[in-house]
Predict the structure of Hydroxybutyrate dehydrogenase.
Amino acid sequence: MAPLVWLVTGCSSGFGEQFVYQILARGDKVIATGRNAATKLKHLEGTGAAILDLDISISPEKVALKVDEALKIYGSIDILVNNAGYIESSAIEELTPERLLRSFNTNVFGHVNVTRALLPHMREKKSGTIAFIGSQAGWKGDPSAGAYVSGKFALEGIVECLQKEVSMFGIQATIFEPGFFRTQALSQQNIRHEPGNISAYEEFNKAVMQYETAVYGNEPGDPVKAVSRMIDVLTGTGMAAGKPFPPRLPLGTDGLKVMRDKCQDTLKLLNEWEDFISSTDVTKEE
């Protein structure tokens, strides 16, 4: 069987970096991307990965040109992993429209633009797999995480629509929903804090930063294992062999709990309010 060709975004650290190492270890080819690749992806030089500078927050037209450049490296791309992302930390009242848009440009629009640019190629060859790295934040809101959470909620909807649109072309898509893993996601280099101007939030903001610092480095999830399981799913091998391709999949016991609790709470609400909810239908004539 010919080696698969992968395109992975956000490879400077964390899941993206692990994808590169593990894809190469299985004998496949990988195009590792990231912004400021000359410096941030320098550690991947000599691994066998093709390295491409790509800031997914640039215009859709420029993203498309970069994807064309990626396609020329090996002549094809079989699997896309939309992994790049970062966190804007702010209470909603202090979250400016500029910061929210900046977050969405990377965490949502960037992924959509890369996917849109690659879809014509996958449609033409009538095959392809697209993965999005979502989060348990796509199921649960947390204080000071409004920009990040809303982006992950948006990805959930986008992926669910995409799945229904591209399956007829032989293309499959999924979204993974990790809990907390020991990556750089909660490092202060990957979280953007900007001074707020509402004094009422001063203590709140201090508490948020203390929480982030306490969690960072103590996350329960192992990123090496997570990437191994994601590769299993995307290739139908290992622990995923024989299982149906999942439309979404939590990773980590904390991610599992978030999803299960949300489902149970939603079912409880629907049962308690069913008569009230149903009472809004148009009354049927006898």
User: Anything to note?
Assistant: The chain has one domain: 5-274. Strands lie at 5-8, 29-34, 50-53, 79-82, 87-89, 128-133, 171-178, 191-193, 248-251.
